[in-house]
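Notes, Module 5: Reading structure tokens.

Key idea: the token line is not a picture. It is a compressed description, and you learn to read it the same way you learned to read a sequence, by spotting repeated patterns. We will look at two proteins. The first is printed below with its tokens.
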Amino acid sequence: MAERASLSLEHLTFSFGKVDAVNDFSLEVQPGSFTTLLGPSGCGKTTLLRLISGFLEPAQGCVKINGIDQKGIAPDRRKVGMVFQDYALFPHLTVEQNLLYGLKIQKKPKDEAYALIHQTARLLGIANLLERYPHELSGGQQQRVALGRALVLKPLILLMDEPLSSLDAKLRALVREELQDIQRDFGITTVYVTHDQEEALSLSDSIAVINHGVLQQTGTPQNVYFRPANKFVADFVGRANFIEQGGGIKMVRPEWMVLREIGDGHADDSRAATDSTLCLPGTVISFAFLGESIRYRVKCEAVTGGIAVVDMRTSTGDAIPAGSSVILSVQNSYDL
């Protein structure tokens, strides 16, 4: 079990020339938590990791680990572990030698180093892979080795920069679950970078949504998804429809709408709906069968941009055909 360290980012500012990569960024990361930095490419996520690790120094602000300002402390003295996007495993070294590399640099006694390696390998389920080389491993196995190489150094903070991006969709989902279990077993404070909203929602205790180097919102996955701070967060974290009404904007998630074809026995839906249900006329443009749901694109003038996205759960696979006139019943909404 790792020490549950706290991490504080206080008013961090950093620029590449005239480009502001991080702008007055503050964030409190709770001890032992899994916090995800989520945002589009180029928003400053990786720059923040480099500021935390010490590979960059902020122009303003500070990084504190357990309340201690890290200014002037070299990366190898910060007790911060890093898992890179491409894993950065040494191809000419075995798994055991890869795990040993950082411990040799730290001049850890041989017996202690090998004990750490074998303990970590058992916890990660890679004890039977120690004699293999990276090219003999699957993507998920390589990911666990990269994670192990960071964990054997007993870091206070673990940083992960899009470590699942090179995996196929099915393996990514599997490794994601394993990663969550590993992080909880070790209890290590983790900061994870991704632009994948599903990944962030499923993994995180807390999500920090970033745009152009500025923190837009931080909170639990549920809070960020159901109660976004602004239109950017609503649109970036999951899919969202926007309806302007009464001088304000309502966010409507695709699963918060029910679609009924006019003429299927529900032609009077708009009359039968309660006063609290917003009913909008539209025309189905297309649909996509996603297994447990069908996603419709519906032409609807009441929705910003003129096209609504609606997710309907289905048990039969039957879909409303393109070109059909429909009523969109809004079951829930959130005022931005």
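Here is the second protein, with the sequence above and the tokens below, as before.
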Amino acid sequence: MKLVVLVLCVASCAEVQTVPAAPACAASTLEIRGNRIWVDREGTGHLTVVFEAGFGNDSSVWATIAPRIRARGASTFIYDRAGMGKSTIDTSAPYSFANDVAILRTALERCRITGPVVMVGHSYGGAMSLLAATEDPQIEGIVLVDSMVPLAWSQDELAKNMKVMRAQYAEIREKAPALAKVAIPWAEALPVTVKQLDALVLPDRLPVIDIVAEKGQDTPESAQLWRDAHQRFTANHPRRESIFATGSSHKVMVDKPDLVVDAIAKMIATVGP
């Protein structure tokens, strides 16, 4: 599946300057768990749309989307995960899916974002959004953008991806040592991440819009497995809606920004002002 392209993943991580009030979270850096995390909260709306980038990307992937959401009356929160973009990472702590989500939740708390929150997650960021929603009742809606979802990775598919990623480690360490600090631990943690994702139980009340890209995977076989998983995820769930992004690559927010904006706007209307 798409996440095997390990050389495209990661940057560096961040720490947090303790922020006394939410306005200070405009283009700020927070120290969180030894990382320096760059955050940016903008807008004055009661509802906050929180954007979570896919693995290997930083908050810049939302640069054209977030302003359009603020224009619709919502506040927005973007940030760079530890090791990405303007954030730096403390490599002394083992990488984990749960720790990534804990850093996000700490950032929201320090920026005094109290809800309602709509999460927008691309790829791995969608998986993070799902885990966060099982822990945080102020998350009242999710928009997934060609996201990892439960049961998307069979053991065979996971083994194939691990083999491809591990074959890239030496080259990444040589050519992109900063990237290697995040990419390799992330890859090695993937079997545990997938197991945790597969075990998630979302609240029945939670509305989800699930955008699936037509051309998001590298092979027809992987594409079919991906679509089947998303179909299972939304089928027979009255509060889950599937949207097919015709002609789009994995980065739907780049190829089909209007579709993503419209889905977010629909979720905002569902959750309420």
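Summary for the second protein:
- The two ends are 37 Å apart (CA to CA).
- The chain has one domain: 2-271.
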